[in-house]
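Pair request: fold both.
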Amino acid sequence: MESMTLSHADPAPLPLKGRPREFCTDAALAAALRVFWSKGYEGASLADLTDAMGITRPSLYAAFGNKEALFHKALDLYEAEKLAYTRQALEQPTARGVAECFMRGALAMQTSQCGDPKGCLGVISAMPCGAEADSIKADVIARRASSQAALVERFERAKAEGDLPAHVDVTGLTCYLYALLQGLAVQAGSGASRADLERLVETSLAIWPTR
């Protein structure tokens, strides 16, 4: 009688820990950003978001949390990618250079041909907020305050270095610059032409307190 050799069977595969995601979270977040940017926080419905992202509601909740959490992540992406010019502006050697980099950066973003919506995500998401979106408004305001504080600090340094006249109110100058930037964004969202926006930038630079 022939002896039988025992063969070792392949080990059983380990069970998967949940179903793998079938979408790119980065692409989905970028799509959500465009929806929020176009419609604001309250104007963007879950159906708008899932349609644009190409995912189901359960997938949205699993990957990003709820709508509010998704917006915060979209706002992080907006600041990192679309507002990179604001960080570059703070590194300019003069106060006028800072202001010019801010305004020309905003102009370039608002007139980009890459298909991004116009206007400012922070402005359109904060202005119409109802009580259910108070946390969104508070986050937008806190982020803006942090950015303005960095600009005040930069202008204070310019004043100490003699780059800005001693009589200049740097807080008022910062508020003035932010009002210009917000006005530029609102006008861009309302259909202003590039020539109109460039005129706003050039006029603002012409009346800047330093050359």
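--- second member of the pair ---
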Amino acid sequence: MALGSPRRSGLSDQVITELRNQITSGEWPVGSRIPTEPELVAQLGVARNTVREAVRALAHNGLLDIRQGSGTYVVATSELAGVMHRRFAASDPRHIAELRSTLESSAARLAARRRTERDLKQLDVLLAGREEAWASGDAERFVTADGAFHHAVVVASHNDVLTELYADLGHVLRQWLRDDLGQDLRPEHHMDHTRLVEAIRDGDADTAAAEAAGYPFMCLRDLGPA
């Protein structure tokens, strides 16, 4: 959609808004490379400098990562997610595991009490997809499928604030799992989440919370004792 305005600052704001919408709507998902600068100029009908200014602004806010010689990539879906990505990217893996354990355990406990039939159907579908991704041997596919499953557990808590916070941390948590797994999916790293889903289905809040709390630390077994 072509944009136009007599004021440069207003036009730049319009471009920033349009690019942000592409990110938040999922049109440009996290990890994807956005169109090149000439392509954006043609799509938006604005000057190259305006596009460059908008891209730099979103990179400064943490939504985009400009990689020289490669392109510009989406790294977060909101400014808060971008801040979290920058703040926690180099954190101790155990601290990330503790944060994930706390959030997911609380979410699983709530999910066991509040889940709907629709939530359970979604969990069943995503659990099957997670297993298929593991069987494929594709580590990146598994990271994506695992993230989708755990996000669905949090959604089933029906706590909007917890769900938004978890979504904003999503990139950090996926990167943590990606770093832990490496390029190869090894049998000793496989974790069956069936008991978690069944506990949520049965309304067993204590078991659901305990199952969810343990998964991050199982991933860290190769690091030895804390």
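Observation on the second member. The CA atoms of residues 199 and 208 lie 5 Å apart.
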